[in-house]
Amino acid sequence: MYKRKLFNNLQTWKLKENRKPLILRGARQVGKTTLIKMFASEFDFFIPLNLDLQNDAKLFDQTDDVSILLQLLYLRFGIAPSPKDKVLLFIDEIQSSEKAIRLLRYFYELLPDIYVIAAGSLLESLLSNTISFPVGRVEYMLLRPFSFEEYLWAKGNQAAINAYQSDQFPVYAHYTLSELFSEYALIGGMPEIVNEYLKHGKLSTINSIYDSLIVTYSEDVEKYANNERHVQIIRHIIGNAFVFAGERITFEGFANSNYKSKDIGDCFRILEKTFLISLIYPTTQISIPIIENTNKAPKLHVLDTGLINRFAGVQAELLANQLSDAIYEGKIAEHITGQELLTLHESVLYKNNFWVKEKKQSNAEIDYLLSFNGLLLPIEVKAGKTGRLRSLMEYMDLVKHEFAIRVYSGELSIDKIQTLAGKQFYLLNLPFYLIGQIHNYAKLLVENQQLSD
User: Fold this and answer.
1) Does the domain at residues 4-142 carry the CATH identifier 2.60.40.10?
2) In Å, how far are 75, 238, 252, 298, 409 from 257, measured between CA atoms?
3) Is the pTM of this model over 0.85?
4) pLDDT tens sequence across 163-198
């Protein structure tokens, strides 16, 4: 089972006493429908609806009474549940019916014994200002592309999973997990692509799936653009986002266009709601809470690194230069790190952040920040096993704590090093394949060093 963590969260939701209808969020093709069909095996009866289909959507036009609607559904699906039976109602593409959205609150208030899950890829983009999900009557869960750990589960490599999850990481597993992570970083975590690649082991069998994903997003433009001008701008962004992914961008004239900053910014924010892209803004702070500085240029991240490799023309280059070395070069290394960090958070509101110091005398930039036990730990991503740490040194001279993290292609270790200003600190050297375990190793870093001191 690939989405083990999310599946467990669904089971927790199922057991809640004060359970609310669940809204499953996430980009197109990340496996929402497949996950719910798997989850349906936990129930006595399963009622799947797709409101993009007219026959399903018109059910909600027949009545405002959810009790009558439920009887219509029982009749439609030919079922007669007893009071003790557990019934799961899945409403896919719910954004196609404003009435279905409004009725969710009445399932919660009047039919609490019915388990209701809704999903839709373009929810926020398509809802007007006059309709929204019932506040306090629903809850949310976010589905992202596969993490590296989920990729290992998909491969069925139990030995690799055991090594990955080990409390004391076995050094002998370094080479194998490095190769597996390289493979994962090349193809990405989109479920259909992962499944096809694991069946056939060839890029030629999955490139058409990459292509169809982007065609689908482009075809959806008319659904969530506000006007014809936005249609053109959003298509321009989609057509160029993968080339600029992982880089800091400016809105004005993005990708050699003549579009103004406001128009580009508005369209980027529309696309953020589809989860296809995200804008990562920097902070200049060195302590929590993190406050984004939206006056500074953001970094552009896209849904999945595998899509970057395909549409930025990186696949062939990576293969020609041997995966284990080339996959970590440049922005791919930083982007896949960010993608893995996102999988550690279930909240729809969570975003990655990076740190900058931009002054005339000197500039510094830290790739990511990790909030841990009240500290902001810097995460520096380095393509190889060595590399300069100038920005990391500057950050450590500013903070009061003594802990930092380098994500790199070498083996797991902890070094005690010194900044140019003479401050000593502990550096956790974390292999790329252990990013998903970063909280565990951050705990080891901080607690062990505090005890030894």
Assistant:
1) no
2) 55, 13, 8, 18, 37
3) yes
4) 999 988 999 999 999 999 988 998 999 999 999 999
